[in-house]
Amino acid sequence: MTKISNNDAWTNIFDDLKILDKITIDSYFDISADEIKRRDGKEARLMTKIDHREHLPTVMQENGLSILAIQNGLYRIARTDPFINIEKEPQCHVKIIQQPTNGIITLDPLNIQSESAALDIANISNILDDVFGEKTLLTIRGRLRGELSFSLNSIPYDINGVQIEVDGGYEGAKSVNLIEAKLGYRGNINIRQLLYPELFWKNQLRGRRKEVKSFIFYYQDDIFRFIPFKYDGNIITASHEEEKAFAFSRVSTFQLSNIEQPTRLLVNDEIPFPQADDFEKIHAIFLNIQNEECPQKVNIIGNFDIELVERQYDYYFNVLRWMNLCTVWNGCIALTEQGKYLLSLNIEKRMEEFTRIIFSETICYKVLKGLPQNEADFARYHISGSTIKRRLSTIRSWIKYFNNFFEKKLF
């Protein structure tokens, strides 16, 4: 069977099963994993892993539809929007705290490379006590299966046997606090990752007089963001007015403007010139590569709010290849020695190395220093005309990003 994209596979499924007609009559359509695989030979778990709005297949996007698991191997398609929007920047004052002084040496608060490490640092630094409003202990972590029910846009969802995962659950005298953790920012998140665990544990703890609360946790560069998730039986929101954010004290002496004329090129100019404005997301993707056994582009990008189109996610991976931080080996994305070295550095030193690599490129250096560029500078990248303007926009956005990072007064 010829391989086709998930997008085309869903279009075929909708056409074959006349799903739109049936949703018009019944308000929703249930489809099994076997039915999905029978149509185009694709695994249902890959076809239905839609963590962000950008991952919805075109046929669902165009018709205001979504898909959620209701049983192990059974999914409901309906006109609902199960995604919560999250603001890019903290919507509160970032509280500066001191690094932990309790003798812990196996976790570096300024070199966090996984979601679990970020949560553990937040725990031992008493950040979580501040967020939860009481002392807590880690009591829940990992995957389980359970039952729960809710409705969206008057569509019922009776969940039975679906896998539920909690990155961290912390119990105190008055509350049980569930966290969905992410390295890096996402503009939206599927409620499945928050609502399913919350309703499951509310059922489990019914009558126990402990409030069950849920939080979206983003570790964005060096900022710990905790955003309460709210569901009142009808409206689902990220409660930014109750958000809390923290960062460890650090003193930066590095200034981007002091970068000197490059003496040698540290980027790979055989890779396309960058076109990915969001360097924070590039950094987060870089961190996530090491957390997969055989990382592949589509699997890593599946964790981010980026359209699952090869041209789109190649923009991000090409930046890392251009910086000589990763390569592709036997179908897997592998960190280079330079990539591994940068991961060993604390976040401030890593950011400094990022800038030294980027601005070793003549074009980038000229933009940084406000010097004129010409088409000859871009000749070796085989780009010209209006394309040049888009590439320069990327570099200008990076300059703004790095200046913001180094100019933060975190002390």
UniProtKB/TrEMBL annotation:
Source species: Sulfurospirillum multivorans (Dehalospirillum multivorans)
Name of the protein this chain belongs to: Mu-like prophage protein gp29
Xref: InterPro entries: DUF6996, DUF6997, DUF7226
Protein origin, superkingdom: Bacteria
Residues annotated as domain DUF7226: 306-402
All copies of domain DUF6996, residue ranges: 7-77
Record domain DUF6997: where: 81-248
